[in-house]
């Protein structure tokens, strides 16, 4: 049955499936690592137990999400050798060192300090533990930086030459790393990660507030911090997205044409299509609903600026418009919905209703997975919009795939689907269970007087105290409780 499928399409579906699973975990853990560093710093500064409770609450969730991100990333990377060996051979001299730098400088940094962050509070002291939290947060961001440099080079290749054997050879590493789309993609993606975490944290806080836990200081603190982040970062993300779009228009115009649904050119101002049904065969956006000339205003800051359409692009170089058109609208729509929740939270804060307004809590809970959906939609827009190339303008997708038969790719794809849903489904279920319990005074590692207790067992000092302390006689088969006890 699988032999009737196109192996290139199956290889693309497999990579899309595995990278979609992988992407949601770093998108969450990047922001959560920074949030944990902030919580730990606030606790050390104020000695407010609420911050320590939240740190202990979220660090367990971070550890699980981090582990699932690592495992899913390793699985994904193996596909470069199995399904995309030609791409690895041709682009390897440029991309291989960058991915090695990611492992050496970022992943080792995260893993090296992760143990201290998780288990070292009572062993290494507050300063070194705080440093470890900062290094884990820095490592997650640095890891994303290297990966996004790799991905950006595939969109806007620079600083290379083509050898006689067809391989891409680096000629200027700075130009390779800081390629034209890299700064915009890095800023847009990292901000998306922080916004994703803010809405997940806010959704968890909203859940507990809807359960009537307004008196829990940890719940109130997490919800307030998340809503501040949403109110500040959501408008920033829209600005960065606009800048990234302008950069894309300069270097990948047909991707923007597909995003906008512009099959035809507009010599005197292009409309902004809100909805429509793209038809690649007829090269037409059917049932289009748009605002005249607004696209020219947004992309060129001029109502009458001419804009070329896909009628200027050969058919074999056009991306699949329907996928790009709708994934872009999902991303943008969720972005403006996040902006609305952030603005609503500011109004509720001003009215002193932040912890009592049920409509805000319902909206925050509903929007809690919105960041994850938005980053996947944005990734689909970016990657499908680059088609039919893996290295834009230089290496086509059909020339990048391994010489595999469709049954081999299809069988491994089905195995991935089954295993991923069982393994990662169990992990996500456990994370949701942890989120369902509010941070309490009994949270492991937190004492009632606001300070940490030892959770690593008996220390040498306590053993010495126990050895020197005389034992009291027992009566009645139990301990004798004196007045001091």
Automatic annotation (TrEMBL):
The chain crosses the membrane at residues 20-45, 57-78, 98-119, 131-149, 191-210, 222-240, 323-347, 359-380, 413-432. Residues 475-485 have a biased composition (Gly residues). It is a multi-pass membrane protein. Keywords: Cell membrane, Electron transport, Heme, Iron, Membrane, Metal-binding, Oxidoreductase, Transmembrane, Transmembrane helix, Transport. It is found in: Cell inner membrane; Cell membrane. Signal peptide: none annotated. One of its GO terms (biological process) is aerobic electron transport chain. It comes from the Bacteria. One of its GO terms (cellular component) is plasma membrane. GO terms for molecular function: electron transfer activity; heme binding; metal ion binding; oxidoreductase activity, acting on diphenols and related substances as donors, oxygen as acceptor. Its EC number is 1.10.3.-. Residues 441-485 are annotated as: Disordered. InterPro entries: Cyt-d_ubiquinol_oxidase_su_1. Belongs to the cytochrome ubiquinol oxidase subunit 1 family. This is Cytochrome d ubiquinol oxidase subunit I. It comes from Parvularcula dongshanensis. The lineage of its organism: Bacteria, Pseudomonadati, Pseudomonadota, Alphaproteobacteria, Parvularculales.
């Amino acid at each position: 049955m699988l032999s009737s499928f196109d192996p290139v399409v199956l290889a693309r579906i497999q990579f899309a499936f595995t990278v979609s699973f992988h992407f949601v975990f770093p998108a969450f853990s990047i922001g959560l690592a920074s949030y944990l560093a902030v919580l730990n710093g606030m606790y050390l500064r104020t000695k407010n137990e609420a911050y320590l409770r939240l740190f202990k609450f979220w660090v367990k969730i971070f550890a699980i999400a981090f582990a699932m991100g690592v495992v899913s990333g390793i699985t994904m990377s193996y596909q470069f050798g199995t399904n995309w060996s030609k791409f690895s051979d041709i682009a390897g001299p440029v991309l291989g060192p960058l991915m090695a730098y990611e492992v050496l400088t970022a992943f080792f940094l995260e893993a090296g300090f992760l143990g201290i962050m998780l288990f070292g509070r009572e062993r290494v002291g507050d300063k070194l533990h705080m440093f470890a939290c900062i290094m884990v947060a820095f490592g997650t961001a640095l890891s994303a930086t290297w990966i996004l440099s790799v991905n950006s080079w595939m969109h806007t290749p620079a600083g290379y030459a083509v050898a006689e054997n067809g391989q891409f050879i680096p000629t200027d590493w700075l130009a390779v790393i800081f390629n034209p789309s890299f700064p915009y993609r890095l800023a847009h993606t990292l901000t998306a990660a922080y916004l994703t975490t803010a809405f997940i944290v806010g959704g968890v806080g909203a859940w507990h507030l809807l359960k009537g836990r307004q008196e829990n200081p940890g719940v109130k603190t997490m919800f307030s911090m998340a809503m501040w982040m949403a109110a500040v970062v959501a408008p920033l993300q829209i600005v960065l997205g606009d800048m990234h779009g302008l950069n894309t228009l300069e270097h990948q115009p047909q991707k923007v044409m597909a995003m906008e649904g512009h099959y035809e050119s507009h010599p005197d101002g292009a409309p902004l299509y809100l909805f429509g049904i793209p038809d690649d065969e007829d090269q037409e956006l059917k049932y289009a609903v748009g605002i005249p000339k607004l696209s020219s205003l947004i992309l060129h800051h001029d109502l009458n600026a001419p804009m070329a359409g896909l009628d200027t692009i050969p058919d074999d170089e056009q991306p699949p418009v329907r996928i790009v058109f709708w994934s872009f609208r999902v991303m943008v729509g969720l972005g403006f919905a996040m902006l609305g929740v952030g603005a609503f939270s500011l109004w509720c804060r001003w009215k002193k209703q932040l912890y009592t307004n049920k409509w805000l809590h319902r909206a925050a809970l509903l929007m809690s997975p919105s960041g994850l959906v938005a980053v996947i939609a944005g990734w689909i827009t970016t990657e499908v919009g680059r088609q039919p190339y893996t290295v834009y303008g230089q290496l086509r997708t059909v020339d990048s795939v391994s010489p595999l038969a469709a049954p081999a790719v299809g069988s491994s794809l089905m195995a991935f689907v089954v295993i991923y849903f069982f393994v990662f489904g169990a992990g996500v279920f456990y994370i949701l269970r942890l989120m369902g319990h509010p941070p309490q005074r009994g949270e492991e590692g937190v004492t009632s007087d606001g300070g940490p207790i030892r959770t690593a067992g008996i220390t040498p000092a306590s053993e010495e105290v126990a050895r020197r302390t005389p034992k009291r006689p027992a009566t009645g088969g139990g301990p004798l409780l004196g007045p001091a006890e």
